[in-house]
Amino acid sequence: MTTDVEGASRFYGGLFGWEAVDQGAEFGGYRMCRLGERQVAGIGPAMEPGVPPNWTTYVSVADADVATKAVTAAGGRVIVEPMDIPSSGRMALFADTGGAAFGVWEPRGFAGAELVNEPGALCWNELATRHPDAAGAFYQAVFGWQAAKQPDYSVWHLGEREIGGMLTLDANWPAETPEHWMVYFAVADADAIGARAGELGGRTLVPPTDTPVGRFTVLADPQGASFSVIALAAA
Predict the structure, then answer these.
(1) Which of 184, 231, 191, 185 has the alpha carbon at shortest distance from 212?
(2) Regarding beta strands 226-232 and 180-186, do their DSSP bridges make them parallel or antiparallel, or are they unpaired?
(3) What per-residue confidence (pLDDT) applies to 34?
(4) Cα–Cα separations (whole angstroms), residue 190 to 79, 83, 96, 208, 219
């Protein structure tokens, strides 16, 4: 969601090679981003006034209305009530108990990203929170997730599958950092992508850093939406 759909489309096209296809006036200028022939992301105008540009993590659900009831019962807040997207699905936007925003998507013709875990495509979603225990209880109640704790990180599981991560915002983080969901896109070279982002008008928020799972960097696009890229380590 951005304040400049055209500018964001140029930026991500130059960064990842995406083609942003305008869906027309019926969809409010929303664009579906393709890498080759496969859909990998979406770019559209902010749905609420005053909301800063951001990437939204969507969770697939069987019924968006049931998910809405589960969110409110668990103490979350509805930002956008369930709404139909013609011929595609039904969506809603929420905030969890810590204020981190996320969406749900009920597929009705369009299931979601058609390519993941490859350069230029989504590969991970991560919740940054100051209240990991409360977040764990919330997402377990809403989606049935389990948070497997590690020393300074947790991994969300749905059954036996790892589906995302949870990072604790401790005293090392600025007090003004809001709780949020972060998206990660896979790349072949995190340093090169960081440099390219700067050439395209973006900026680096966290410099390239090595981790056991790969080398990552946190970037912001020209409109201010933050995202991460990671060169995944070989399995």
Answers:
(1) 231
(2) parallel
(3) 97
(4) 34, 37, 30, 7, 10
The H or E element that residue 72 is part of is helix 64-73
Q: How confident is the model at residue 14 (pLDDT cuts 50, 70, 90)?
A: very high
For 130, the 3-state DSSP assignment is coil
Residue 189: closest CA among 207, 215, 213, 210: 215
Report the predicted TM-score, pTM, of the whole model to 2 decimal places. Answer: 0.95
Nearest to 47 by CA among 13, 11, 94, 9: 94
Start-end of H helices in 74-181: 132-143
pLDDT score recorded for residue 11: 98
Strands of the sheet containing 31-35, edge to edge, are 19-22, 31-35, 38-43
Q: Does residue 126 contact residue 89 with C-beta atoms inside 8 Å?
A: no
Average pLDDT over the chain reads 95
Do you know the residue count of the chain?
235
- Amino acid occupying residue 20: A
The two three-digit tokens of residue 193, written as one number: 């992508």
Give long-range contacts, CB 8 A cutoff, 24+ apart: 45-51: 45/1, 45/2, 45/3, 45/5, 46/1, 46/2, 46/3, 47/1, 47/80, 47/93, 48/79, 48/80, 51/1
The pLDDT of residue 132 is above 80: yes
27 token code pair: 């969809």
Give the pair of three-digit tokens for residue 102. 């996320």
pLDDT grade for 17, boundaries at 50, 70 and 90: very high
DSSP letter for 68, please.
H
